[in-house]
Amino acid sequence: MSSFFKSLFSKRESTKEEPERAGLEKQKKRKSKKKTKNEPGCTQEKWDELVESGENLSGVDHPFPVTKEELKKHNTKEDCWIAVRGKVYNVTTYLPYHPDGAKKILKHAAIDATGQYMKAHDYVNEEEMLKTCFVGPLAE
Ligand code: HEM
User: Fold this and answer.
1) Distance of alpha carbon 106 from its chain centroid, rounded?
2) Which residues form the Cytochrome b5 heme-binding domain (predicted)?
């Protein structure tokens, strides 16, 4: 390879790699500084274990279509329902596990919180994470 081509090649590599590396460093810094607001011991791993145990956390024996009137009644720390993407979940047990704190969910409890949920984290798979908390579809 001529030196002309060699220099072209190495230049392309360094400009391509450096912004990526800088981005990775920033991401690492952000992650290590990130404070979570879940209760002590209420980790994502513990939540996954609880869900995988299959214990029914929905508070109902069988799923049923939930009207907005019914949903509205479940707006406390002791009895907290939330609708996301057409499904209603009883998230009372999940509250202390929420990485951004129980308050954030409680603020949007008892309503269709799809918009706020998607804004915060459209990548979170609530259907899987809350499968044992499912109360029923949100009625039209
Ligand atoms: C319906 C039940 C919900 C579940 C299962 C859930 C789950 C999660 C999970 C797993 C995370 C960590 C995400 C990560 O590590 O990147 C998280 C963070 C967060 N959640 Fe939720 N969430 C729920 C409801 C909500 C609602 C209603 C809001 C209202 C805005 C909200 C706002 C946030 C925020 C702001 C964060 C922090 C995001 C960040 O650090 O970048 N969540 N949630």
Assistant:
1) 15
2) 63-139
